[in-house]
Structure formats: C-alpha cells, structure tokens
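Hi R.,

As promised on Friday, here is the backbone we talked about, encoded as structure tokens. Could you run it through your design pipeline when you get a chance and send me back a sequence?
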C-alpha cells in the first residue's frame, strides 16, 4: 500500500471534520436566534455558556486550586471576553442577520493574522477587507449602525480571545485555562439566566433552541476542531475556517429567511478573501516560526466557546 495513502485519507477526514465544525457553529447561531423573541440574546448566551461549561469542565477537570496569580488573571480576562464576544455577536445577529454579523466578527482574527504577517500582502488584505466592510455598511438612512457596531465589538473580542488564549496556553497546560474561563463565565451568567427564566418563563421550544445553540456552537466545534487539528496543519485548518461567513450567510438565507443583496454578498466575499490571503501569509511565515505561529493560525480559524 502507498505510504502516503493513510496520510491523504487523514487529511481528507480532517477537511471534512473542519467543514462540519464550521457548519455546526453557524447552525448553532441560527438555532439560538430562534429563541431571541422569547429570552433575547442575553438569555441565549447565558444558556450557551452554561452548556459549554457543563460539558467542558467534567471533560477537562482543570486544577484550579493549584493555579497562580499569573495564571488566573488571563483566565479571568478570557471569561469576560467569552461573555462579551458571544453577547455582542448574538445581539448583532438579531439586528443585521447571521451572515453579516459573522462576517464582521471575522475582522478580529483577520486583524491578528495581518499583525502577525506585516507584509505588503497584508496591507493589500487590509484594503480588501476595508472595502468589504464599506460594502456591508453602505452608509444610508436604513443602515443599522448599532448592529454593525456590535459586530465590530465581537471582532475585537475575538482578537482578544486569540491573544489571551496564546498567553494562557503558555502558562497553563492543555485546555485547562480555557475550561476554567468557561466555568467562570458560566458562573457569571447563571444568576442572569435564572432571572430571565423567572421573568420570561420560556416555553420548551425556546429552551431547546438555546440549548441547541450551546451544543452546536460550542461543544461540537470544540471537539471537532481538536480532531481536525490532529489531521490537518494549523494553516490549512485556519484557511478552511475562513468559509464561516459564507456558511453563515447561506444558513441565514435558507433557515432564517434572511435576504442579502449583491453588494452584501460582495462584501462577504471580499472579507473572506482577505482572511484566506492573510492566513496563507501567516502559514508561509510559520515555516520559520512553527511553534509561535501554529497556535495563532488554529485560533484564527477555530471555534469559540
């Protein structure tokens, strides 16, 4: 048997798993949006964080008692970022739709990739992405500037998520730091969830939509990304994850009956192109700095709890 065959099959499986991860992530966001009319984005995010913590903490079992102050402060910051990132994204989804919100959020990892590259091509990528943002925003009387602003907050939060995870990864082994941050975030959202559920008294369908968001957008992508990264290089993984905005737009159109014009689709295409090019540049650079860049590439493309 050809020695390259198993490797080829492994990479093919990794590519398929990566696409499944991205699709699950966006289906989770779409599912959560169906609960917005009942419990709002805050309620959905609260349930999502609780579901993620309920799965991740028993799985990882972080040793929180042995953590030092230098380990705790980035973990606590990451917990804040978790809440800010998901809440701003879901609030943006409610106002501007799934496709545009996710596209704007991808400006965060794109910025990290460009910063790590700092080449002429990265400057071109920045121009392409800026053009895409202008196409999406298109100043006019009906422009939802609040929704766009929330998408930008989500983008900044994702950039902070990547940088904090890099710091935590250097100080805490495995994913213990991320799991701990998820637990802290869930603990902060628990009283909010209780108040919302007492006040709104959601029906079973709304609760199931929110729980599905936690499973599809947090648990499934987390496991799938770990499996995919064992089979494909971090650079290829990041590039594959660049299709998230396109998947989000398609799922929004099909399942949520959202409408996007030709200009919005063009804006999405420009930002996806800029993200892919930036990741290619980072991937080339990782040949000389593999340890430093591999984790960045994976987090730029990967899922977020």
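Update: got your reply. Pasting your designed sequence below so it's all in one thread:
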């Amino acid at each position: 048997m050809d020695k390259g065959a198993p490797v080829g099959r492994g990479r093919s499986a990794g590519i398929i798993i990566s696409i499944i991860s991205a699709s699950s992530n966006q289906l989770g966001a779409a599912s959560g949006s169906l609960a917005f009319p009942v419990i709002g984005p805050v309620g959905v995010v609260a349930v999502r964080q609780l579901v993620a913590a309920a799965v991740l903490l028993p799985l990882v079992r972080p040793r929180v008692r042995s953590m030092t102050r230098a380990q705790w402060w980035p973990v606590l910051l990451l917990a804040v970022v978790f809440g800010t990132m998901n809440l701003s994204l879901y609030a943006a989804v409610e106002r501007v739709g799934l496709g545009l919100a996710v596209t704007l959020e991808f400006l965060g990892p794109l910025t990290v990739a460009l910063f790590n590259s700092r080449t002429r091509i990265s400057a071109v990528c920045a121009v392409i992405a800026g053009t895409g943002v202008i196409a999406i925003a298109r100043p006019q009387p009906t422009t939802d500037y609040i929704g766009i602003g929330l998408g930008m907050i989500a983008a900044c939060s994702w950039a902070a998520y990547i940088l904090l995870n890099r710091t935590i990864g250097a100080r805490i082994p495995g994913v213990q730091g991320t799991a701990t941050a998820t637990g802290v975030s869930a603990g902060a959202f628990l009283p909010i969830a209780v108040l919302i559920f007492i006040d709104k008294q959601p029906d079973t369908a709304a609760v199931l939509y929110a729980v599905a968001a936690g499973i599809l957008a947090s648990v499934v992508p987390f496991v799938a990304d770990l499996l995919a990264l064992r089979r494909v290089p971090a650079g290829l993984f990041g590039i594959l994850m660049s299709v998230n905005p396109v998947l989000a737009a398609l799922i929004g159109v099909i399942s949520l009956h959202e409408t996007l014009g030709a200009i919005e689709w063009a804006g999405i295409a420009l930002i996806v192109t800029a993200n892919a090019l930036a990741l290619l540049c980072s991937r080339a650079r990782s040949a000389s700095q593999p340890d430093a860049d591999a984790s960045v590439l994976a987090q730029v493309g990967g899922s977020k709890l």
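One thing I noticed while checking it: The first helix runs from residue 4 to 33.

Thanks again,
M.
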